Every structure is written in structure tokens, then in C-alpha cells.
Target: histidine kinase
Amino acid sequence: MRSDSPRSCARAFVVTLLVMAGIFDVFSASESGYAIWPHAVVLVLGFAALLWPARRLPDWLTPQLRTGAPAVASLLFTAGSLLLGSQASFGPAETVVLLSLLFVAVRHCPQPWAVVCGVLNGAALLGTPARFYQDDMSSLMAFMMVALVLIGLVAGLAAFLRSQDYRRAVAVVETRRAERVAIAADLHDFVAHHVTGILVQTQMARMMATTQPENLDTVLAGIERAATEALASMRRTVGVLRDTGPDAADRRPVGDLAGIAELTHGFASPVQHVTLDRGPTVPDDLPHEVQAAAFRVVQEALTNVRRHAADAGEITVRLRHDGRRLEVGVTDDGRGGTQLPAAAHGGGFGLVGLTERVTALGGDLRAGPPAGQTQGWEVRALFPTGRT
Model:
């Protein structure tokens, strides 16, 4: 209520000024012996177009109709005066109304109506002095020059604000698109990783149920942990979708170098051994975005091992820092054997999104067979850290 009161006072003040100017126009025309009904028609249409509450506007009262009808009425008034050769007055209220409608037309009317309604209001404003100065060309030209300056200023301001509105709308669309892409990446990187782990370990549990029942509890515990982490990731992501507040992005699933140790530990299984080889020169205070991207590289690489190289026995996660760059590598000795269903293989967008994430930080990502080996696969990323 308090925030609306200054706006309401300003609106009441503007309405009062317009009404007083309108009364002055009609009174001046009456005192000079001119017909007052053409002035009344133009002013009533103009006041209705400007002062009609926006929340109560009917659907048929479009911006082009609101801005075009008073301008047409003013033009007809001017044309009638010139054709009949009868002098008629013009006043400040009609000038303010036409300038205001010009502003509304240029800023709010859809294309191409913005141009049409803007031209109508500009022409109507230029024509108003012709009613009175039919025989005085010098005065007519002077008033028309002033009108041209006013038209240029108002139309220019409205066009500038319209361009700002367009840029703001484009920025909002791009921001929403980037947000959707980021959320999709979060869903893929975290939820898909955990769900793939659940699937692989479920297959393993089915095989061990008859061959190694004594080790089955370890696998079931891994399934339970992966399911819990998947639910937590989904809950955080859904929270981001529901909340548009400034702290929403802070609740996204994130990772760092410390989280890589937990990731590799949780990935290990009775048939796969994961080794984390972290160099002693790797600092703990690297930029957060670099640590998060490194975590995603390891996560995506391990997920792809489950999807495409389930026969891998040895998996090595390597972290190195040479003073300027962080190297992240994931190597496996698999031959590409997998027992996952085709629907669980993924759409091939994981490495694409990962490449975009790495290159956005000025890094480089490569994936392929390890150098000097006939089998296995390696994912290697280099990140500039800005350190010396």
C-alpha cells in the first residue's frame, strides 16, 4: 500500500492537470466563438485512451486502437476546418494528449502498428496549428517547427525505451535458456551417474546372489547409497526449478577436488578397482569453478566406464598440477564390453556438454585410447588455474 501511494498521487496530479487543460481548451474555444463539440470529441477520446485503468481494459481496446482513434479524430477536425475554411482553435490539452499517445504508440504498439499509429499522432499534432493560422504562414511554420522538435524528442525517447525493453526481453530469454541448459547438465552429470551405478550394481547383485552370496551385502549397500545420492541430487535440482530467488543457484549439486575422493571410493566394486592418484603439488584452494569442472570430468568419465566398459578391472583417476595448469585424467583398461540395456547407454551428449564446460574455462578436453596401449580409454582435461 505504501509503495503504491506515491504512484497514485502522481497519477492523480497528472489527471488533474489534463482535466484542467481540457477545460481550458473548451473554455477558450467557447469564448472565441468556435464550436466546442469537435474539441470535446477529441479530448474525450484522448483522455479515455490515456486514463483508462490498465487492469480494466477490454480485449478489444488494443494499443493501436487507443492511440489511433484520437489521432484520426484530430485529423478529421483539422481537415474539416481547412475544407470549410472556418477557423478553429487548438490548445495545450490536445497537444499533450497527442504527444502522450505518440509515446505510447512508438513504445507499446506491435509492429507495424507502432509506425502507423506514430505517424498518425505526429501528423495530427503537426496539423493542429493549421486550423487557426490558415492565412498566417509564418506563424504556422513556426508552430510546426516546434511541433516537429517535440515529436522528434518524444518519438526518440519512446524508441529508445522500446529498444531497452527488447534487449531486456532478449536477456531474460537467454538467461532462462542458459538456466535450462545448466539444469539439464546437472541432471545428466549427477542423477544419471547415480542411476547408472544403481543399474550396474543391481546386475552385479543378481549374479552374486548365486555365486557369492556372502558379498551381496556390500553391493546392496552401494545400491542404497547411490539411490540416496540420486534422490538428493533430484531434490536439489527440483528445488532450483521451483525457486527463482537469488540463492537458488547456490543449491545446485556441486563438486570439488575433495569430492573426487568420495566419488572414486563410492565407484569401487568387487570386480573393479579404482585408484586415485593425486599429486602432492595439487593445491586445495584452486578456483571453485575449476574444482567443480574437474569433479564433473571425473564423474562423466566414471559414468562412461559403467556404460561402455563394464569389463574394466583397473581404473585410475589422476590429478596433477604443474604450477600453471591442473591436469585431470581418468584411464581404464576395458575393452568396451557392457551388459547395460541400449536405453542406458546415453545419448552421446555427456562429452559434448563436458567439452563446453571445460572450454568455457579456457581448458582443453581429449578422449581416446591411452598413448602406447592397445586397449582401454582415457579422458584427459587441462585447466588453466592462473597460479605460478
Q: What stands out?
A: Confidence is low (pLDDT under 50) at residues 248-253. The chain is about 65% helix and 10% strand. The longest strand covers residues 314-321.
